[in-house]
Structure formats: C-alpha cells, structure tokens
Automatic annotation (TrEMBL):
PANTHER family: 5'-METHYLTHIOADENOSINE/S-ADENOSYLHOMOCYSTEINE NUCLEOSIDASE, 5'-METHYLTHIOADENOSINE_S-ADENOSYLHOMOCYSTEINE NUCLEOSIDASE
GO cellular component, as recorded: cytosol
Name assigned to this protein: 5'-methylthioadenosine/S-adenosylhomocysteine nucleosidase
Pfam family, any one: PNP_UDP_1
Highest taxon above the source species: Bacteria
Length: 185
C-alpha cells in the first residue's frame, strides 16, 4: 500500500476519493502540520511508498509550467546561529528523495515577493512550497521511500496568491493524470 499525501484537499480535487492501492492523507499547510500529519500516518500503518502531490511556485523564469519530480528540499526561511540563511541549527541543510528532479525550497509562508524569490534562487531552489522539506525529513526518519510531484501554480511573485486560487484545479488535473499514467490507477 502507498500513501498519497497532499497539504490541501483542493490539491486532490481531481482525484477520486478512493484510489486503488493508495491510502489518502491531507496534512494541512506548512512544515509543522506536514510533519505532524505524516508522522501520525506512519506511526499508524506501514507503507511501501509515500507519494506527495501538490502545487509549487516556480522561481526559475525559464522553467515552463507542468508537473515536476523533486530530488531534494531545502529550507529558505531558517538560519543558523551564525546567521547563515538556509541552515537550520539542528536539521540538515538539504534532504533528498533519491530520485532525479528539481530542488524545492520550503518555508512556512506563501511566497508572493520578488526579493524572497531572489533569495530562494540564491540558495539553489527552482520551486518553492510550504511542506516538502518536512515530508522528506519525516519519511527519512521512518525509512520509507518518498516521491514528491509538484505542479507549478504560479511564479511566487506579486499576485501569486490570486493566481494560485485560480490555478489549483488545473494543477490537480495535471497531478491526477501523472499518477494515473505512472501507477496505472
């Protein structure tokens, strides 16, 4: 059995309530809710794989819209005791999925600002979201393989919040199609 995970129910709106071979989990947005929700699910049952789906802001202007596999996650909203942005005081600077793909920067606020986008690019992020780092870190603690698929919903700059509200349904369809193609469900 696999666990299909999303932060928000709206990201799963194109998916049927029941998907053969998958349990479903909606954690809520942000790193804390993501970590808490996934930890509870992995404490309650064993899964062969975690499959995360959801939206992300694109911070690379050359990257076309679509669904992307995530290879690693960094945190863009932390700093260590020396003031180094992207370095947490006790967590690794980067967590990996073990798959080929893009680097996503995770933070606890919805990015809608050019200056933040530039900082994320400087850290090596190509996409931005609010949960992936937590999901990957928790999966690693439980030694469960994880796959993260993110659909680009916006450019994480001025007006991104409004754009996300308008594009989440289309992103959900793209994600559903990808899961259907790759898992035969």
């Amino acid at each position: 059995m696999r666990l299909l995970v999303a932060a928000l129910a709206s990201e799963l709106q194109a998916f049927p309530e029941s998907l053969e071979g998958f349990d479903r989990l909606v954690t809520g947005p942000g790193k804390l809710k993501a970590a808490y929700g996934l930890t509870r699910a992995l404490d309650a049952a064993a899964y062969e794989e975690i499959v995360v789906v959801g939206t992300a802001g694109g911070v690379d202007p050359e990257l076309p819209g679509g669904v992307y596999e995530i290879t690693a996650a960094i945190q863009h909203d932390v700093q260590d005791l020396d003031g180094v942005i992207g370095q947490h005081v006790s967590l690794p600077p980067r967590v990996a999925t073990g798959r080929d793909g893009l680097v996503i920067a995770t933070g606890d606020s919805f990015v809608d600002d050019v200056a933040v986008v530039e900082r994320i690019r400087g850290l090596g992020g190509v996409l931005v979201d609010m949960e992936t780092y937590a999901y990957v870190w928790v999966a690693d603690q439980f030694d469960v393989p994880i796959r993260v698929l993110r659909a680009i919903s916006d450019t994480a700059q001025d007006g991104a919040t409004t754009v996300w509200d308008e594009t989440v349904a289309a992103c959900s369809i793209q994600l559903r199609d990808r899961i259907g193609d790759e898992y035969g469900v």
